[in-house]
Design a protein that fits this description.
Elements: H1 2-19, E1 23-29, E2 33-37, E3 45-51, E4 57-63, E5 68-74, E6 79-84, E7 88-94, E8 100-107, E9 114-118
Antiparallel strand pairs: 1-8, 2-7, 2-9, 3-6, 3-8, 4-5, 4-7
């Protein structure tokens, strides 16, 4: 009986871990567009992002109160893990003349919003 309870607990733990680490996407960002991840109110989460395309992608965190924090530039072949604070959107900006492509792995108990926006001249530039 004790072995059964241990096995049941392990099975439950494995199911819980799988359910909170389970969104993967390869995303194409059109020229002069920005892919936005996690807009609006949400809890903290982690995302591992790899630039699988041919062009640089600028990364900027934007809080709900309008504070923009440049996180850097993902060069082709580079990847980075981002710990995203609650209520913070992360923008992946493609300034190239052709499409950029990123692979996004999200580790969270929730599904963040995703969408595209046109690049605007007043968006902060990552350095």
């Amino acid at each position: 009986m004790k072995n059964f309870l241990v096995l049941a607990a392990l099975a439950f733990s494995a199911t819980l871990v799988q359910s909170c680490a389970s969104y993967y996407s390869t995303t194409t960002i059109d020229p002069n567009k920005t892919f936005v991840l996690g807009e609006g109110e949400h809890p903290a989460y982690k995302a591992n992002v790899k630039n699988v395309g041919l062009f640089d992608v600028e990364v900027v965190a934007n809080s709900l109160n309008g504070v923009a924090t440049p996180l850097g530039t993902l060069k082709p072949g580079e990847s980075s893990e981002y710990s995203i604070n609650p209520n913070t959107a992360v923008a992946f900006k493609n300034s190239a003349f052709l499409a950029a492509t990123i692979k996004v792995d999200i580790y969270s108990m929730f599904f963040p919003s995703m969408g595209y926006k046109d690049n605007t001249p007043n968006q902060p530039q990552a350095k």
